[in-house]
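Deliverable D4.2, example record:
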Amino acid sequence: MVQSKSTSHSHVLEFEHLTRDVDSHGETIEPLIEQFWYQVPKTLRQREYLHDGCTITVEINWQRFATRLRRDYGLLRPLREKRPPDKDWYSKLSRPLRIQTDVTISGTNELASHQWYPTFFLNTFIHEVFLIANLAVPGSANFYRTSIARPKQRDPTEVRLSAFAFDNGLMNSLDGEWPALQILPGKDVCEWFSALDIGYKQRADTRGHQACRVARPQVDVYAQIAFRDAFCKVGGYRWLRPELPRQATREPHADSDSGQGGEDYQGDHQIATFHIQIL
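Output generated by the structure prediction step:
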């Protein structure tokens, strides 16, 4: 029996800023954020995608992220409490966190050899983690100043996913405003998202995807409120996904002349767009 070929592609996730953008209700929200990342569900550490004869496995170890996040909030706490901070607090806070992660491709297809191909699936997974984390604990995944790099890559892939709308919604809720939000178990939100079975699809192809109604109505209602809150406060969004190249909205395929992933790529750098679609 012939075994399929597996190739591992190393990437570096760089987080320039991990903490929240605002301080309000920090004594309530920040311990919840720290707890989420120290107990991050297994499904947010590894994700498997199937595409055109290939199995793509993305693995991210969030332990260093959790440790750094707790340290950074600890550095900020004296400032908020009007106590003397650590003498090097700013330089420590400003130092980027880099996490090495791997994308393993088993099998082959006409796209698997392109530089952007494994990076796309890592970027997709980052978008999923962002959504799930912020639905569980609003404001917990602030990936606005985050990038994905590969060895010898000319330009990193900018992620730019801000948690401000989620964070702002939770702060308003704690202030007694509508809607009343609640913290949800990460495992439940993961199960809700898994039941949607979106994969890397860019367009809803079933009424179930369009309605986003699954067996966990509590999470579903919360998601609808969160989307509504984000939409009302920020506006102009569609569905939470990174953009594939235009032709990849059906099935990804490379440009026959350039060998690249289509006009939405610059060299090996994917231009990812984050948006919400109100279906």
